Amino acid sequence: MQQTGTGIKQVGRVVVPVTDQARAKAFYTETLGFEVRGEFVMSPEYTWLEVAPVGAVTTLAIVPPPEGKPVGIDTGIAFETADIEADHAALKAAGVDVDEEIMRMGDPVPPMFFFRDPDGNTLFITET
User: Fold this and answer.
1) Which of 58, 60, 109, 110 has CA 20 to 30 A from 46's CA?
2) Which one, of 67, 50, 57, lies nearest residue 15 by Cα?
3) Are 1 and 45 in contact (CB under 8 A)?
4) What domain count does the chain have?
5) 53 CB contacts (<8 Å, ≥6 apart)?
6) Which residues are 97's β-sheet partners?
């Protein structure tokens, strides 16, 4: 029998480039409510920092970008929530750069909105 594919079983982490890890850490933990899953000093100039929503499997590695690579990217990262209205209102009240309105395209597309972290990285939340 011919084997195809790989042994990949899940997404482990997604890297989000940031210019100021302390500011990003505060945003992701205090504003979004994520928890720190690991913080490892690799060198005096580089710390590997992973955060995630409580109970989530996949983490975000919030790290300085490789030399010459940009921050403020469209990450394509989608978070899920049971209450899009409450999350939209909470982020807006916290001063987060969020879309003014929740997008409602109708079935099968769930309600969603985009927001930006302090470095301008775009992420979005969908209602499940």
Assistant:
1) 58
2) 50
3) no
4) 1
5) 32, 33, 34, 35, 79
6) 116
